[in-house]
């Protein structure tokens, strides 16, 4: 059975997700951010989370080789971050958007929460790789509305 990729994408868009930025420091010390919605909890003991990265993404080498990174869950007020860091060629993190975490990865200011991670394992996932990260630190939780994506649009929770 062949599945049309556009139909599959539309069908998957019926699952509402939070929106996150994954940040990492490149070899040259430049801070990068990438918008994702493929974030999931895996285990509490040990503390593991996962996300996936398209193999042909221009930013692939930065994240595929990052020993540490941060996953920031975005607030509704951070829609502009989501849009900016989802653009091809737009992954260099603005200095005003972050501070360095204890693991050396950038933490997004005013995010709902930041998960500092070390790479535990990379797994093949077809046209993506699945990055399994061990959570080494969690920031304080900011009480604010989350950024939610559903049906190809940002939405608000009622």
Automatic annotation (TrEMBL):
Q: Which InterPro entries match?
A: Flavin_Rdtase-like_dom, NADH-dep_flavin_reductase, Split_barrel_FMN-bd
Per the UniProt entry, what species is this protein from, by scientific name?
A: Congregibacter brevis
UniProt entry tagged with the keyword Repeat = no
Q: Which family does it belong to?
A: Belongs to the non-flavoprotein flavin reductase family.
Q: Where is the Flavin reductase like domain?
A: 12-156
One GO molecular function term of this record is:
oxidoreductase activity
Domain of life of the native organism: Bacteria
UniProt keywords (A-Z) are: Oxidoreductase
What name goes with this protein?
Flavin reductase family protein
Pfam families linked to this entry: Flavin_Reduct
Q: What is its EC number?
A: 1.-.-.-
């Amino acid at each position: 059975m062949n599945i049309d990729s556009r139909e599959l994408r539309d069908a998957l868009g019926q699952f509402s997700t939070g929106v996150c930025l994954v940040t990492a420091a490149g070899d040259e010390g430049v801070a990068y951010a990438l918008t994702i919605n493929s974030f999931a909890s895996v285990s509490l003991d040990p503390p593991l989370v996962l996300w996936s990265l398209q193999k042909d993404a221009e930013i692939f080498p930065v994240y595929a080789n990052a020993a540490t990174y941060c996953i920031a869950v975005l607030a509704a007020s951070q829609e502009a971050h989501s849009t900016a860091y989802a653009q091809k060629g737009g992954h260099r993190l603005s200095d005003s958007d972050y501070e360095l975490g204890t693991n050396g990865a950038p933490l997004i200011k005013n995010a709902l929460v930041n998960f500092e991670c070390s790479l535990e394992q990379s797994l093949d996932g077809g046209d993506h790789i699945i990055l399994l990260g061990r959570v080494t630190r969690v920031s304080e939780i900011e009480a604010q509305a989350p950024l939610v994506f559903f049906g190809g649009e940002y939405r608000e929770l009622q």
